[in-house]
Amino acid sequence: QVQLVESGGGLVQAGGSLRLSCAVSGSIFRANAMGWYRQVPGKQHELVASITSGGNTNYADSVKGRFTISRDNAKNTVYLQMNSLKPEDTAVYHCSAGLKWWGQGTQVTVSS
């Protein structure tokens, strides 16, 4: 059974940093692109960053230069390093494997 478990969210002041982790159980990690998405109540899910199985990355314009996605295939874990956080980054952040499997989400709150 595949499970994705996010961690690392929390409350931080504007300008601060957080590092999100998503640990994937099961054998699907290496073969799948991984992505971080975020959702604010009343709005659609937004792609934040993605990374292919080969390590190619893609970022939303709103986070370019501030966020970095990476993956550790030995640990079946994908990370999202978030720097220079802004109040508008406040959301529930979910990780996804291949857009087929999703984690439960972790709350990120950035205070002004």
Percent range for helical residues?
under 10%
Mean pLDDT: 96
Radius of gyration, CA atoms, in whole angstroms: 13 Å
Shape, per Cα inertia axes: globular
Residue ranges: pLDDT <50 for 5 or more in a row? none
Distance linking N and C termini: 40 Å
Structural class: mainly beta
Q: Give a short account of the largest sheet.
A: 7 strands, mixed
Number of helices, where a helix is a run of at least 4 consecutive DSSP H or I residues = 0
Number of strands: 11
Q: What is the element string, with H for helices and E for strands? A: EEEEEEEEEEE
Strand residue percentage: over 45%
Overview of the structural elements:
By secondary structure, this protein is mainly beta. Helix content is 0%, strand content 53%. It has no helices and eleven strands. The chain has strands at residues 3-7, 10-13, 18-25, 34-39, 46-51, 57-59, 67-72, 77-82, 91-97, 101-102, 106-111. Strands 2, 4, 5, 6, 9, 10 and 11 form a seven-stranded mixed sheet that branches. It has a four-stranded antiparallel sheet with strand order 1-3-8-7, with no helix packed on it. Strand 4 and strand 5 form a beta hairpin. The radius of gyration is 13 Å and the shape is globular. It starts with a strand and ends with a strand. The model has no long low-confidence stretch (mean pLDDT 96).
